[in-house]
Amino acid sequence: MSGFGRAACIALQGLAGISVQIEVHAASGLPAVFIVGLPDQAVRQAQHRTWSAIARMGIAAPSGRVVINLTPASLPKAGTHFDLAIAIAVLRATGVVPPDDGETALIGELGLDGRLRPVTGTLPLARAAAEEGRTRIVVPTGSVGEASLVEGIRVLGAPSLAHAAALLGAELDPEPVDAVPAPAAVPRMHADLDLADVVGNRDAVQALEIAAAGAHHLMMVGPPGAGKTMLAMRLPGILPALDTDAALQVASLRSLAGEPPPSTLDVLPPFEHPHHSATAVSLIGGGSGAIRPGAAARATHGVLFLDEAPEFPRAVLDMLRQPLESGTITIHRAIGVATFPARFQLLLAANPCPCGLFGSGECTCAPQQRRRYFGRLSGPLLDRVDLQVRVDRVAPGADGARRTTAEASARVAAARERAAQRLAGTGWTAMGHVPGPWLRRNLPLDRALLEPLERAVERGALTMRGMDRAIRVAWTAADLDGVAGPTRTHIGRALSLRKGIPA
């Protein structure tokens, strides 16, 4: 006796999805199960979960020779989300479930009791299924909310393999079972923070506003307790809200990284805050099995905040140079290549010296120690940071910030709208994204305005790339002031914010 069954699933390479056909051929002969098509260890172990789950349905699994083929065979397959598709293909090979309709994708991990468990990356898998032209997707009941965030595809939830088989036309009357719930979403700690809580440091608040208005990278240097982290955590609140596509991309990256899924789309820009002991893999992404996004990718459309930046390994920090320029991260591994978006705002914070008191107290560090401390931040990395500002401790009774988060957000939104009109048709939405050659060619400034920047280049205080970045900051400052273009005041402000940290 022989039979053939087929089912559809999705494989991910980064956020890109590739349709995978599961083919099962069951034939008579000595008992043996072969899974082919470059499966990883988790996919190979699906045999045991599948056979146990089928037995729990009261159905005899194939007892002869079974070949399970995952096509395309040249594509590596990783993860437990193939379990449900493999099980349904086996049930189709035995005649329990009707043949594949060509419209349904199947995603889910099987427990030995036959229940379906939510899997990492359900949202990007569902998005990929919709983009592949599938009209419906069957997922574990606990993943229905996450998968339903994707428009254009019908989501069916099943608590067990038996319920999934019944949804696909099997003549079964499965008993009710308790669905495995998805992990609860963790509240975002920076969602309700207000800029009005910041006391003093008006220059730093202004720099934060310029950074938000132009998507510029920012570095803050100051002693411990000056409020650098407090300022950083309020940046997402004054950034423009995410549109639907950006929010879906952010949620997909978080889902792929294994974070609890959201029940609704979160339009607040993400805020990633890795510890200074973070490895290259945790910051950039990778892994020995499936390639997962790191903190830089998860910060897409939001903020990557590196506190105590000089404490990070220099080699790890320098890995950010490429995504800062291109807005993407491409990771090459033996199992394949994955590309993730990485269009984030880099926000660095640092003490002025190892003891933290240089410029604001009795510093005990020798000049050589200070140079060595900041030498961990390479020149090419700092050259990509548009704004550099000093943050000092404030005295008791100092004035609060001039604006609340709502007021600053409104100014930022108006400045972004002016920039978007200027950049219409280019694909860029903020001045911080504009490359230097395009800026010089399409938005030329009067030579007299550029004279202070050219003198700084001649002295070696700025590179040519630094000059381009200062011009972009000047355009952003002009947008915040509601004027048509930069003036000498805006150029001077950009230059002071570019080199605003005393040596």
Describe this structure in words.
This protein has 503 residues and is α/β, with parallel strands linked by helices. The protein has 2 domains: 3-167, 2-Layer Sandwich (Ribosomal Protein S5, domain 2); 195-414, 3-Layer(aba) Sandwich (Rossmann fold), CATH 3.40.50. It contains 21 helices and 18 strands. The protein has helices at 41-44, 46-56, 83-93, 122-131, 144-147, 161-167, 202-214, 228-232, 235-238, 244-256, 280-284, 295-298, 314-318, 321-326, 367-374, 379-382, 405-422, 436-442, 447-459, 464-481, 488-498, and strands at 3-13, 16-27, 32-36, 65-71, 104-106, 109-110, 116-117, 136-140, 154-158, 218-221, 271-272, 285-286, 292-293, 303-306, 328-333, 336-341, 345-350, 387-390. It has a 5-stranded parallel sheet. A 4-stranded mixed sheet has the order 1-2-4-3. Strand 1 (3-13) and strand 2 (16-27) form a beta hairpin. Helix 7 (202-214) runs parallel beside helix 17 (405-422). It is elongated. 47% of the residues are buried. Residues 214-395 form the AAA+ ATPase domain. This is Magnesium chelatase family protein.
Which stretches are poorly predicted, pLDDT < 50 over at least 5 residues?
Answer: none
Number of strands: 18
Helical residues, percent: 25-40%
Q: What name goes with the CATH superfamily of the largest domain?
A: P-loop containing nucleotide triphosphate hydrolases
End-to-end span in angstroms? 82 Å
